[in-house]
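INTERNAL AUDIT FORM
Audit reference: QA-55
Scope: verify that the stored structure record matches its stored sequence.
Auditor: D.O.
Record contents follow.
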Amino acid sequence: MARAAIDLGDERDIDHNESLKAVDGLLAHCVETIKHRDANLRSLTRADLLRVFEAKTSVMFPLTRDLIASMGQVLAAGRGATPGQLNSVSFSPATLGVEPALPPFCLPRRSLIDAITRQQGSPALIVGSEGRGKTTVASLVGKELGGVACWVDLSAHDASALPSAFDRLLLAIRDLPSRAVVVVDDFPVATTITQAVWTRFSAVAEQCARREQFLILTAKGVHPEAVDPRLRTAGINIHAVPDLLREEISEFVSALGCPSDRSSQFAAAILARSGGGHPKLVHLLGLELQGADWHNSPASVMENPPVSIEQARAFARREAANTLPDTDLDLLYSLSLALSSLDREAVLFIGEEFVGLRSPGDALDRLVGRWVETQSSHEYKITALLTQPPVSD
């Protein structure tokens, strides 16, 4: 897919790094397409490919009077100018992203959305481990407030590109109206934020405050306790994405068409199978049961490992294997065997005695956030995406 995106970009003289930004969008479109129940809609055409590619590799500019005047001067001068002289107006590669499309059925996160919207006076930071739906929550909050005016996707940028991304965001929000919603998705807010990034981010936050624009951030794999303390002192409200309650799952399956007389039983089964209400696992299992027209019984959900959850866990294991060093991965797999949360001393003992790590505390700190969740200041639990499924008798 990456090579195809680069080839498509070469045909349009688009930089390779910019072309690679389209890969996530193309994969997401493929996933959404195969979910259609109507076989006629489960098709992918070159037109679909081009539409998604152009959306991910294009940037919109407001047609201000200055910009129109500059373009007019260039065009007028171009009548008697050589091609090399037509460079009066130039644009840097786009860093502003495209707001992802929401799935047809979203998890009900009404209490979390209400909590975020009630505190519009200060920026909001949405935190949580892998698969918690932080991006989806940001999008739902934006829609609750009338739509997102500017969406910045930092997932494809390394640390060296972040200052430039915030510089361009600072320019972009100057042309937005007051009370507009601005989302910065996948911002690395751990304690490694450099001074160059912090200075530019602070300028963005201050300008949003002056114009009463609501700045929403989603964190890249970090739990609340590991957030850069400067964010707290800057008055940013931190919102952790919790597991779903049984009542929320019941509401979700009802929206998916589950018979009302069985929604409570299905909710209980999904709650147990999803590791206590992990958002991604709840969403996938709900869609799987909907695809089977709710013919499965709640008891069968408990007895037989759901395909969607097995696939999600297999994908998470591959993702962890591709992104973690072997030492951290060995500790992570060892922790996945635990049936309950562990205190820090127990984790360090496992790391030293069973994994053979010299610095198990450092390995644990690297895992906390994306793959390991904190239950309290000294208790940890591996994400439900990696826990071993229970063995049926």
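Auditor finding: record pair retrieved intact. The CA atoms of residues 135 and 218 lie 7 Å apart.
Action required: none
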